[in-house]
Amino acid sequence: MKRFLYALSFFILLVVAWRTAVEAGLWSPVLLPAPESVANYLWSSIADGTLAQATLVTIRRLLVGYSIGLLIGLPLGLLTARFKICEDTIGFLALGLQTLPSVCWVPLTLLWFGQTENAMLFVVVMGSLWSVVIATDNGVRHVPPIYARAARTMGSKRLHIWYAVILPASLPFLVSGMKQGWAFAWRSLMAAEIYVTILTGFGLGQLLHFGRELNAMDQVIGIMFVIVLIGLLVDKILFSPWETFLHRRWGTAGT
Amino acid sequence: MMSIWPELVSSSRCTIPGEPPGCGAVISQQTPCEQASLAQAKVVVENVSKVFVTKRGSLEALENVSLQVNEGQFVCLVGQSGCGKSTLLNIIAGLEKPDCGRVLADGKPVTEPGADRMMMFQESALFPWLNVIENVLFGLKLKPNLTRSERFEAAEFYLRLVGLKKFMHANIHELSGGMKQRVALARALAPHPRVLLMDEPFAALDALTREQLYADIQQIWERQKKTIIFVTHNVREAACLGDRVLVFSRHPGRINEEFVIGLRRPRDINSVDLANYASIITLALKETLVFESRGKPLGQAEVAALSS
Q1: Which B residues 82-101 touch A at CB under 8 Å?
Q2: Looking at this predicted complex, what is its ipTM?
């Protein structure tokens, strides 16, 4: 409760500071809208359904793209950890492509897929896939060999060792890798949505983009709020339970 | 089946029959003593050699090691670190392959690990992603023909046996070192292996916890009639637990000498008799060291010098 109060007063203070800056008139209202006009925008966009619509479109792209990234990344990571040849080829490729900011995929993607949903998905997959591969690979390599030995003496064989020992043993790495993959997917999707306007659905990034074109800073800042909020929610809903489980089971320091 | 100990005295021709020796402990030094018949042998190691090849050269971990362990025997392998005793245990477990020679378990050649030979390690090797009872269930789940409730009952039984039933839902990191090894013991016992291979399982524990575990393991061994091969570098531990203590030399690793411990069970690690046994075995261990550096056995005078 005490922590909550501290956090609450911190954010109230932040808004007050913002409000004061607007009052002082240091910047034109076009550049820095008042908190209430941002709130107004959010309220009206909730009321007319545009916000919900855009959020839905964005989340769907994100979830589908991220799931594909996981489904491909996890097995690839296992392969690179298991086979030297995969490590030298796919592993090296993953390492290289992970350093490539996923926005860089956008121009190519547009040529390949045009202004379609697939273009969006592709960028998200490319954004998340490689860090998932690397995290999985890393996780598997950090599994103490004694676990597999112990399992083998208990009669565990190849495939069983993989899914009953190696995979759960590398969970701490997998979860942090999945989290990183998520963060990359989220960033790349926003970049893609801002750059690519497609007619099959307007996402949050596109609303942000329109806000800029219309000089509607209240819209821009309002959407930014929503994006941050979604990021926080996903962290709490998707990853926190896993992390809590890991902290409890492994006994690592945690909340 | 009668208790293991009297049977051993009578079957082992090299042991001095009758009362175990008193203060002036007399230990029979066995030349590879032909024990009973092969049919009784639970684990047979035949002329096993193993060489590890590294960048800096090859290391002869085991050279022509032969060994026979009978059903229900408790055999301790002692030796300096690096003498190949753990390698031998891994080979018996089927985790490593010998370069030549072979291992028979129940008369069948060992080619891979099997649930009939369960292994316990120095670190507990418990799985941190499972809680206590799930760890014990791991091996049980790999046994076919058991129902869910049978598995659960077995897991509970063995946790009770090691005195940790209360902690069945605890996480591994919440246990002390001694408790972890108890859970590891329960996990190894649960699938009901006939042979238990223990690789310095108590080496990382404090003295008091170890003493408690010596008592526990002796009790469990007697009750459950397991065959145990126990690797340690602690001579007292070996004398306390083993029916037979095999002394390893290193570079190359071989069995140098064998001692039959004629003390009544349960044995107390602090007893004077046991200390006498231990000092004699220690002497034999020291001999292997001198032997290692000179390449030939000691003379009488040198043995006398070492023992003084």
Answers
A1: 93-95
A2: 0.77
